[in-house]
Specification:
Blueprint: H1 2-29, E1 34-42, E2 54-61, E3 64-71, E4 79-86, H2 87-92, E5 97-104, E6 107-111, E7 116-117, E8 126-129, E9 131-132
Parallel strand pairs: 1-8
Antiparallel strand pairs: 1-4, 2-3, 2-5, 5-6, 5-7, 6-9
Length: 134
């Protein structure tokens, strides 16, 4: 009787250990697979950015924003940006596009007139020109 009693006492411990292992494995499956996309934002010639300028670069598809980064631009550009995103999100996206916008003194002053379609993360930076906001 003592051997069956010992087996019954260890059963809940084994069950909890198995459940914990499943939770850990499920957590690993949902972990983002981060990658970076190098972007070069090119402002129009002669643009002088204010000290409070904020540059936003977005990766979007029809469903909305997939990734976004913000930076403080300085100098006359072009401004290198590294956009970090989940590789699986990009693979599942439909027609992902990059765009940029520049805000100065709280106002949207420059935008990417035509978003740039991308197909994956490559070695060469993606060029995003900025134009004055219409």
């Amino acid at each position: 009787m003592s051997s069956s009693r010992t087996a019954m006492q260890t059963f809940p411990g084994r069950w909890l250990l198995g459940a914990l292992a499943l939770v850990v494995l499920a957590g690993c499956a949902g972990t983002p697979d981060f990658a970076e996309l190098n972007v070069r934002v090119t402002p129009p010639g002669g643009l002088e950015v204010s000290e409070d300028a904020e540059l936003r670069v977005q990766l979007r598809d029809a469903g909305g924003t997939l990734a976004e980064t913000r930076a403080t631009p300085s100098g006359s550009g072009p401004w290198p940006i590294a956009l970090r995103f989940d590789r699986r999100t990009l693979e599942a996206a439909h027609s992902p596009q990059l765009s940029a916008e520049l805000r100065q003194q709280g106002n949207l002053t420059h935008v990417t007139a035509e978003p740039v379609a991308i197909s994956g993360s490559g070695g060469e930076p993606v060029s995003l020109p900025l134009d004055p906001r219409p």
